[in-house]
Amino acid sequence: MRNLWLFISKYNAFFLLVIFFTTSLIMLVNNNSYQRASVWNSSNQFVGSAYEKMNEFSSYLVLGKTNDSLVAENARLRNLLKSSFYSDSIKRVTVNDTLLKQQYTYTVAKVINNSIHQKNNYITINRGKKHGIEKGMGVTSATGVVGIVLNVSDNFSTIRSLLHTETKVSASVNGNIGSLVWGEGNFDARYATLKDIQGHLVVKKGSRVITSEFSLFPQGTNIGVVSKTGLKGTESALNIEVKLDTDFSALHYVYVINNVLSREQLSLEALNKAE
After folding, report:
1. Who wins on pLDDT, 119 or 88?
2. With left for phi above 0 and alpha for psi between -120 and 50, is residue 247 left, alpha or beta?
3. In principle, which of 54, 121, 193, 256 could form an S-S bond with 107, CB 3.0–4.6 Å?
4. Where is pLDDT greater, at 183 or 269?
């Protein structure tokens, strides 16, 4: 206590200055409307800025949860897309009995491993058998085709990326169907090749390339746009360079597509091989 009194007595002039300055400032603000308004505005601006910074910081802390909720909502909306349904209709005379039934469902998954610089690239996701994932299912991103499920464990799955020399996707440009492949002499993760387009057809740069009705993906799923035409193909067909919509270098979430009619179709087609 003695040391405290010694400290106060030593610096009493400074403390008196602070007390007098604070008192005069309070009196000035209380007795002058202009100064009072200026102080309130300044304090409000300071407090508002502080709250804004705190909100930005708290938003950053929950950014992961926000992303998860957004991709989950995207998956729900994709399940409601018209392309996810098929028409089960029977037309008898003048009676048109139409009922839309869901053909495709989407499961959101997080990418936990991904390669893009190899000749054959693979992707690992955090969904597996427990989540209804099966080998052969198609995989897309929010922008376009990603690949095909290759192997599945209880909690994880590996995907044969579109950036794989053995991956082939039935694609269409302006209604003309061809086979989309990757690695035709160019292992660039941004581009693929659309093969077997009829040579007499005119395909312009910038035309959109989508999945065809013969693909395991829903018809009309985005793949990319034509970036170069007139590539060397066969005598009767031409090849087209396609700039992919999916940025494989920034792939964080994907959607695994379940075609609920695929088993029935495959079982029926297997009978043809048995005969």
Report:
1. 119
2. beta
3. 256
4. 183
Return mean pLDDT, the chain: 76
HEC assignment per residue over the chain = CHHHHHHHHHCHHHHHHHHHHHHHHHHHHHHCHHHHHHHHHHHHHHHHHHHHHHHHHHHHHCHHHHHHHHHHHHHHHHCCCHHHEEECCEEECCEEECCEEECEEEEEEEEEEECCCCCEEEEEECCCHHHCCCCCCEEECCCCEEEEEEEECCCCEEEEEEEECCCCEEEEECCEEEEEECCCCCCCCCEEEEEEEECCCCCCCCCEEEECCCCCCCCCCEEEEEEEEEECCCCCEEEEEEEECCCHHHCCEEEEEEECCHHHHHHHHHHHHHC
Tokens of 220: 């009309």
Digit-coded pLDDT (tens) for 83-114: 544 444 333 333 333 455 677 888 888 899 99
| Contact by Cβ (8 Å): 211, 219 | yes
Residues recorded for the chain: 275
Q: Considering only 8-12, 41-45, 124-128, which range has the smallest mean pLDDT?
A: 41-45
* Per-domain boundaries in the chain: 17-61, 106-274
**Residue bearing the bigger pLDDT, 68 or 213:** 213
pLDDT of 55 higher than 60: no
* pLDDT above 80 (res 240): yes
Residue 261 to residue 132: CA distance in whole angstroms: 15
Query: Burial, 265: exposed, middle or buried (Cβ in 10 Å; 0-12, 13-18, 19+)?
Result: exposed
